[in-house]
Amino acid sequence: MKRLLLGSVVLVTAFIVGCSGLGIIKSNGGGVGAAAEAKKFDAAKYAANKTDVTKDYTDVSKSGVLTESKKVIVPDFKVYFHTQARGSAETGHALSGLGGGRQEAKVSQKVNLSVDQSVFQQITDSMYKEFIADLKAQGYEVIEPKQLAELFPEYKTYTSGDKMKASPHKIDDAVVAYAPTGMKVEMPGVDIGAATGGFSAFGTTMNDVAIRASDKLEAIRMQPVYDIGFAEISSEGNVNSAELSAKQSIRFTPYTQIRMGESWTMGYIKLTKPVASAEPYGKLVEATTSTDKTRGVMSAMGKVLALGGNTATTHDSNTYAVQADAQKYKKAVLAQWKTVNEMLFERMKMEKADN
Question: What b-and-e string marks burial along 221-258, b requiring 16 or more CB atoms within 10 Å of the CB?
């Protein structure tokens, strides 16, 4: 096994000799640093033709609600930050001799984001502040959570209940959810009904409360959800090789959307494809321990030599960390946010004009 670390690029190659030839696994971590080039959003194309690019990157449902009222309530605001990216690739071929069989190889890669997490709250607060300002710039009277709790007591009761969690709230090992300072995050799973336009198995949800508040106050409700990745892991391979490539990429995923409605009407404005950048914001370090490496090599060699004509599987697993510069990370996220926010509001303007 050969492992090469050059600054922000790591290349891992494992050689597996079978009876019919050579199997190769390559794990390329380059791109989590500056070396590999992630597919990024074409800012120049967007600047030259905002209307067409916005239509290409966004979709809308029930846009008629945008002209139903001059009042907007914002009952919740969620930002999901990805802190771990994972990927795997595998290959295999038949063995000749020794009774036949197969030889298989698999490589998996895990990349963790290492950054001062206080920057997540700073980013969330900045996004919320600008979102509210943009709503007001479009002529809406905005009712924020504190005022909404005064006008609609059920909202105050719900946000004080056990379905709301303090921000930040860890969803799992890969994602953490943030709300603006002073707000909470709805418990994972509770908002599934709201996301799909269906019903939740958890009973009353934030979406239900927001619908009733919207109906009583004769206001449009807007509930933004932003999903932010930090890396992209892609795979490719053939019968003799499998390769993983991890690229640094601040990316707003297609889960990003503004859920919206008026009374019982439910719609959205959302991204249809990632809005991503490829500018470096940190450095790549290897997190796989020397003990893990030795154990992995010995295990793989043992399987190849001992299993003979049976299926032999080699698995090379590597862990890396992006040690992010907090201010560079914040700058990169907010730069992408500016584009995302502009496109969502541009689509909002288009739909209001059409209605």
Answer: bbbbbbbbbbbbbbbebeeebbbbbbbbbbbbbbebbb
- Which are the contacts of 338, defined by CB distance < 8 A and separation ≥ 6? none
Is residue 158 scored above 90 in pLDDT? yes
pTM above 0.90, yes or no: no
Residue 229 to residue 145: CA distance in whole angstroms:
27
3-state DSSP helix/strand/coil % of the chain, to nearest 5? 35, 40, 30
Cis peptide bond N-terminal to 75, omega within 30 = no
Using CA atoms, how far apart are residues 213 and 219, in angstroms rounded to an integer? 8
Q: What is the pLDDT of residues 104-113, one digit of tens each?
A: 667 777 888 9
End-to-end CA distance of the chain: 63
Residue carrying structure tokens 């603006």? 180
The mean of the pLDDT values for the chain is 76
- Identify the residue whose tokens are 């290349």: 11
In this structure, how many other beta carbons lie within 10 angstroms of the beta carbon of residue 264? 9
Residue 148's CB: how many other CB atoms inside 10 A?
21
